[in-house]
Design goal:
The complex is a heterodimer of chains A (about 400) and B (about 55). Chain A is built from 22 helices and no strands. By secondary structure, chain A is an all-alpha fold. Chain B contains 2 helices and no strands. Classes of the chains: A mainly alpha (about 400), B mainly alpha (about 55).
Amino acid sequence: MLDQVLFFFNALLQQTGAAHFTLGNLVMIAIGGTMIYLAIIKHYEPLLLIGIGFSCIVANVPGPPDVPGGPPVSALLYVVKEGGLFHYAYEGVAKLIVPPLIFLGVGAMTDFGPMIANPKLVILGAGAHLGIFVALILAKLVGFTINEAGAIGIIGGADGPMAIFVTVKLAPHLLGPISVAAYSYMALMPMIQPPVMKLLTNPEERKIGMTQLRKVSKLEKIVFPAVIAIIVNLFFPPVAPLITMLMLGNLLKEVGVTERLAKTAGGALMNIIIIILTVAIGSTMAADKFLTWDTILIVGLGLLAFLFGTASGVITAKIMNLFMKDKINPLIGSAGIASVPIAARVSHIVANQANPHNHLIYHAMGPNLAGVFGTAISGGIMLALLGVQ
Amino acid sequence: MVPDSVYGAILLSIIDFFLSFAIIAGIGAVLSFFPYLNRLGEIDEKKLREGGH
């Protein structure tokens, strides 16, 4: 009798997820929980981390096997598998529908005035991208193929949609870990960047104030998206879909006669896309797929890319100061890494801590916005050199 | 086009890094001419908004 009860109990257990729960699942649930903690308590990019963290947790709660004797399938994977709700969300990311729509929304929410007002600082958008190439070379050294190394390197551009875009083109099988690394580090920039920025600057440099920027006219702001779209489509066709949508969104915002469209692109549509994107990314974080040696290497290389990118931005700003009459605060150099507006906010906060009268957010937005183009240009050149359309 | 080797990765990185610098500098140069656009006249933002839908 007892044997029969135990037999049935065991059979029942096998039909639940509890029997398939692993230490790896526990680790990933802790990581997902940490993301949610950082979003709620530290306010680190809650729009990204809440969705990614929650999906990561659910993706690591195993359910019963899909087929008798097969591997356990989490509840989230049931909706991610073909025919499920989020299957199409993931397809939207993998088929490069979501990244251009994100750029449309970003364009509709962004004022490119700071970049237009001080063209000299645009160069920081290239200077802060050394991390891409450090990670690329190191990835190749540890055994990744050149295409995989390129995709890993682009994490250092700190631009989520661009990282997804380049990864799908170069190494689609790495989309999960690379998008997780890119978005997680972007959200964690307030923790990653300040130590590097402080290490490379002295207190006097951090206190440097900057003169107010000139006012940019409406005409300039309307012409800007058209000019940039022409340049990018002419010289960088591989990344043209992203930048073209960014510029379309910006034109919708600036012309003034399409307020409804700009509000939708930067509001409701953007919010829907964020939900789809974060769940699609988080759902790739199941322990059996995520806790691999390759993923650990990618996450480590991504961190190095962010650190070197931050450092090279600050150093580029310091080099520029050698030649400039009006000195710039080198802390705005790290904003050139892209990740709008997180990196600019970090520059502003660190400068403000050194000198409470320093309000560098508008100045830092220039290199920050240029960083978006810097990442796109680096990605475009990389795709062209690797012969990928 | 680029060989799948460490040499290829270094070559790709050097070309990409310096070319990015040159192109971004080019965009900066184009932007430095933007103030001249204002000689064409001024856009009345209020009128723009009135024509919105």
